[in-house]
Amino acid sequence: MSGAAQRAGRQREHRHDQAAAAPYLALGDRASTVSAHATPSGDGSTAIRLVGVEKQFEGAAAPAVTDLSLEVPEGSIVAFVGPSGCGKTTTLKMINRLIDPTAGEIHVEGTEIGSLPKHELRRRIGYVIQQIGLFPHLTIAANVATVPRLLGWDKRRIQARVDELVDLVGLDPEVLDRYPSELSGGQQQRIGVARALAADPPVLLMDEPYSAVDPIVRARLQDELLALQQRVHKTIVIVTHDIDEAVKLGDRVALFNVGGILEQYGSPSEVLSAPANEFVEEFLGNERGLKMLSLLTPGDLDLSAGCVVPAHARPLEAEQVAKAHGFDWVGILDGDQLRGWAWVADLAELTRVGDAPTRLFRAAVTTTTPLRQVLDGIVNSHTRVAVVLADDQRHLGMITIDDLAEGIQ
After folding, report:
1. At what angle do helices 185-196 and 155-168 cross, to 10 degrees?
2. pLDDT given at position 109
3. Facing residues of 397 across strands?
4. Is the pTM of this model over 0.85?
5. Side by side, which strands form the sheet with 46-55?
6. Which among 312, 126, 348, 113 is positioned nearest to 225, based on CA atoms?
7. What is the distance between the alpha carbons of residues 96 and 111, in angstroms, rounded to a whole number?
8. Of 3.40.50.10320, 3.40.50.300, 3.20.20.70, 3.40.50.150, which CATH number belongs to 23-293?
């Protein structure tokens, strides 16, 4: 094959890869991609702003999105949630111009997106989808390197970024030489996130990224996203049909009705504690109190020591403490360390309660454990309490069902 033919072939491959990667293009050197026509969109703390956005598909009887206005704060996670056909995915796709709006304006990082060529806009935006979209014929390393390669980064810089991202998403470097089909669904999803972050975009869009994995993997990936956000501080918009996922991940929740009508937009606690209307209340379901518990931690409660006595206490003192709390057991403290608990009936013949054999509390939590998890521990324990321990295992207090009820109030 002639040199000219080889160059032509490489150019065709490059154009093909650019077209295939278009939805996932993220920002490389941001200063070089900002349009000369960029106009400020208002408050600098707003990363994404939609003003009167509508989408009417040809032949459709009603709009997919109706007069939508909202702002996404910089560095926050906003969850779009609602029933099928409510326009949440359509809205997401309009933000990176996979779909163009029929009316209205969308600003990303201070620029009205219509003023930018699509490929420049997408260099500012990482994109993660349910189907993950990894290229099956490329290794994991090549998949992650797709955008930096298209942006013309040198090999050393690309390799360093790929290594950094694989570590960032918690995968072993040995996966880099594998192909997507050789990885589990959870691993593929992590690689999808790594690829979306490859060129360090300020905005990350995620379209139901965890709906295709099992509940255990989904919960783990959700936790990993929250941990990752603590490190990368991106502006993230995530589409989900699961209100529990929206409450868990979102700093704000945008709840849509059919037709892309925004029924309520606020923090998870605001939405759960004060639904805007009957539609929101019905969508939230009958477990609003339990969902509220997922937003709170023991650190939000006024903790009391609970049903405990020092190891040097006499059995009569332990019996009085247990009776005052309505229990037939008592916790035993060695200084500020909680040794465990013992039945009051087993203390009668002892001189000091510290001589009694103890059992470990089944529900031991920290100040950052979600109260919904605390509740699960309480109802599955013999003592019907959860003990709260510091990182150094100091006893901080106990939580009962009544404490949880007061916490919600």
Report:
1. 130
2. 92
3. 388
4. no
5. 65-73, 46-55, 103-108, 111-112
6. 126
7. 12
8. 3.40.50.300
Tokens of 152: 């013309």
- 16-20, 56-60, 215-219, 233-237: range with lowest mean pLDDT: 16-20
Question: What are the beta bridge partners of residue 364?
Answer: 387
- What are the tens digits of pLDDT across the range 153-179? 999 999 999 999 999 988 899 999 999
The CATH class, in words, for 298-408 is alpha beta
Cα–Cα distances in angstroms (integers) from residue 145 to residues 9, 29, 171, in the given order: 21, 15, 16
Stated as kind and residue range, the H or E segment containing 252 is: strand 252-257
Question: Residues 165, 168, 173, CA angle at the centre, nearest 5°?
Answer: 65
Q: What is the pLDDT of residues 92-114, one digit of tens each?
A: 999 999 999 999 999 999 999 99
Please tell me the distance from the alpha carbon of residue 42 to that of residue 45, in angstroms, as a whole number: 9
Average pLDDT, stretch 270-286?
93
Work out the percent of the chain whose per-residue pLDDT is above 90: 70
Where along the chain do its domains lie? Answer: 23-293, 298-408
Residues in the chain: 409
